[in-house]
Amino acid sequence: MRKNQNATLRKPEILESYYQVLIEQGIEGSSLSKIAKKIGIHPSLIIHYFQNKENMKLELINLLIEKYKSPDMISLEHIKDDDERFHALIDILFSYDWSRTVDPGIHFGFFYLSFRNEEIQKRLKKMFVWLRDYIQEQLEYYNSKQIISVKNEKQAADFIVTLMEGLEFHSHFLSDTPSFDVFSKMAKKNVLTMLKTGEI
Hints:
The chain is mainly α. The chain is built from ten helices and no strands. The protein has two domains: 2-51, Arc Repressor Mutant, subunit A; 70-197, Tetracycline Repressor, domain 2 (Orthogonal Bundle).
């Protein structure tokens, strides 16, 4: 029993250390010794809990999924007016804070690995499908309240997730200045127009 309690306490701490090392060193520069040093433990303890680095990667993805699903990220229950709550939701989804829920280097790093690792791909897909399904559910509700006029909520949710992902791509590869907010506002404005006029 005590062994299970220790694992419950230590594994999240080790995974958070792994996450920080990935931010600092990148996927290619991380190692068990660096992860262990970050929190002052022996590398053998990491092996004890995870068996190998591959298992750590998979469990870290689960941690990242939980970051996305955190109630703190989308807290709208305090807003009673449907129209106001809908616009607050769109503001959150296209915000810089949402985009940085997970460090973009790690985000794209695991995206790269998903092409070569079926299990990583499966877990990332789970994360994106959860986000798409959540947005679809919200669009169905606001459609029923006539806040928006959407023909296909699932297709609209797919489009929103794809555009959200593209914001970080634009900021990193296509922008000459740190213009995340400028491009995000433009993307958000176009999404609102499509949702309200039934173009999607």
